[in-house]
Automatic annotation (TrEMBL):
The lineage of its organism: Bacteria, Bacillati, Bacillota, Bacilli, Bacillales. This is Ribosomal RNA small subunit methyltransferase I. Its main location: cytoplasm. SUPFAM superfamilies: Tetrapyrrole methylase. Its EC number is 2.1.1.198. GO terms for molecular function: rRNA (cytosine-2'-O-)-methyltransferase activity. Belongs to the methyltransferase superfamily. RsmI family.
Length: 276
């Protein structure tokens, strides 16, 4: 069966990172699906691509999906791009891929870099195992709760942050563990690309000085030491965090009791009390 969708990576910033295969694909498909037609038009103009653009983003993806699938069955071909980097990662698209799987339609992936992988490579922080958290929740209480979970995580953590929120985020991180090693990357692949690695409390003092508050930020956080994991949160939240990491409730309760020197029954009771 012919391919109906090409999930096409684009440059993060430097247009010279565009691959020959990506350029040829965007020239030959019938329609390019993109987050912002204005942003993608700059890319297509640079490479002399005159393929029609169609908006596909979080606000119209549901209503657009049926039409796209119908056109695919009629033989039209599409490329899916994001404003920068790989589509689908922290962007809409997985829903369309899932629908295509259900419909028996074919797709391929044309790769490019993602900001979080480049930042991880440049961080100098262990990268054998890591967890990508994407963007934090927007509201203050949910953001702080998520950061506490991330800071208690034993693996290296990677997340995205905007320039106007990065100081607040680093402040919460430093309050939780000012000695934790942090790497900040900004303007990746662009003229003023920057990577800085420091303890959290020291990093906070560099923001809006050595580290300008411009461009999108990627924060890489060193994993928590096993013996100190989750001690700044209640035992019930500690159990919840371990369950999210893949443990069963029974395993998580046993581990929390062991590392905190508590009775399993006490941890069990506290955990299940929060579920009522």
């Amino acid at each position: 069966m012919d391919v109906q969708l090409y999930i096409t990576g684009t440059p993060l910033g430097n247009l010279e990172d565009m691959t020959y295969r990506a350029v040829e694909t965007l020239k030959t498909v019938d329609v390019i699906l993109c987050e912002d037609t204005r942003t993608t038009r700059k890319l297509t103009n640079h490479f002399g691509i005159d393929t029609p653009l169609r908006a596909y983003h979080d606000f119209n993806k549901e209503e657009s999906e049926d039409r796209i699938i119908e056109e695919m069955h009629e033989g039209r071909t599409f490329a899916l791009v994001s404003d920068a980097g790989m589509p689908v990662v922290s962007d809409p698209g997985f829903e369309l891929v899932a629908r295509m799987q259900e419909e028996g339609l074919e797709y391929v992936v044309i790769p490019s870099g993602s900001a979080f992988t480049l930042a991880l490579v440049a961080s100098g922080i262990p990268s054998y195992e890591f967890t990508y958290f994407g963007f934090l929740p927007k509201t203050g209480s949910k953001r702080k709760k998520k950061l506490k979970e991330i800071m208690a995580h034993e693996l290296t953590s990677v997340l995205y942050e905007s320039p106007h929120k990065v100081k607040d985020t680093l402040g919460v991180i430093a309050d939780i563990d000012g000695e934790r090693m942090i790497s900040i990357s900004r303007e990746i692949t662009k003229k003023f690309e920057q990577h800085v690695r420091r303890p959290a409390s020291e990093m906070l003092g560099l923001l809006d000085g050595e580290i300008p508050l411009k461009g999108e930020f990627v924060i890489v956080i060193e994993g928590a030491e096993p013996e100190s994991v989750h001690f700044d949160i209640p035992a019930a939240e500690h159990v919840e965090a371990l369950i999210k990491e893949g443990l069963t409730p029974k395993q998580a309760i046993k581990k929390v009791a062991e590392v905190r020197g508590l009775k399993k029954q006490d941890v069990y009771d506290e955990f299940h009390e929060t579920k009522k």
